[in-house]
Design goal:
The chain is α+β, with helices and mostly antiparallel strands. It folds into 2 domains: 134 residues, no CATH class; 34 residues, no CATH class. The protein has 4 helices and 8 strands; from the N terminus they run E-E-E-E-E-E-H-E-E-H-H-H. The termini are far apart. Bound molecules: zinc ion (ZN) (2 copies).
Length: 169
């Protein structure tokens, strides 16, 4: 879905859109596993276009400890600001604007909503996810998933002092 900057008015306009998992590529960061649902508004404020609202989607990510896929629902409230022009053209203006660095520059006056959704998902991916609170992770020695098997590598790691005692028995 495409939004033309010039068509956005001072009166907010509803945007309801849905993106299927195959439409949004999150690189290797994660996978979209449900439709991404966008319930937003486009509005023009002091010459800048705001697209904001709520984005909901289920994402599959690797568990930080054991790398098993974990399904995470995301609910993102956002407000993205768009200004027409190429980035280099606007460098001078940017310095004057100072803090307003959260603005995106749009060449050709067209916003691809899919890109907006993709960016918001990537920005809001959790840094760490766990398949369960007490995930035991992968064994650093043999790489086994310790949630699934007890590889017993830990058993070998007996303190040498205890090992000496053990051999006495
Ligand atoms: Zn895990
Ligand atoms: Zn092991």
């Amino acid at each position: 879905m495409i939004i033309e900057l010039a068509s956005v008015e001072i009166l907010p306009k509803k945007i309801n859109a849905k993106f299927a998992p195959g439409e949004i590529d999150l690189d290797s960061e994660g996978n979209l596993v449900s439709d991404a649902i966008l319930d937003a508004e486009a509005v023009s404020k002091s010459g800048k276009v705001h697209i904001g609202g709520r984005l909901t989607a289920d994402i599959a990510l690797d568990c930080t400890r054991c790398l098993e896929a974990v399904r995470k629902p995301l609910e993102i409230d956002f407000d993205s600001v768009f200004v027409e022009g190429a980035e280099d053209e606007l460098e001078d203006k940017l310095e004057i604007a100072g803090e307003d660095l959260a603005e995106s520059f749009v060449a050709g006056g067209i916003i691809d909503l899919k890109e907006v959704v993709r960016e918001q998902l990537l920005l809001n991916l959790p840094e760490q996810v766990y398949c369960r609170d007490d995930c035991r992770g992968l064994c650093p020695k043999c790489g086994a998933n310790r949630n699934l098997i007890d590889c017993r590598c830990d058993d070998d790691e007996v303190d040498p002092r205890w090992a000496a005692l053990k051999s006495l028995r």
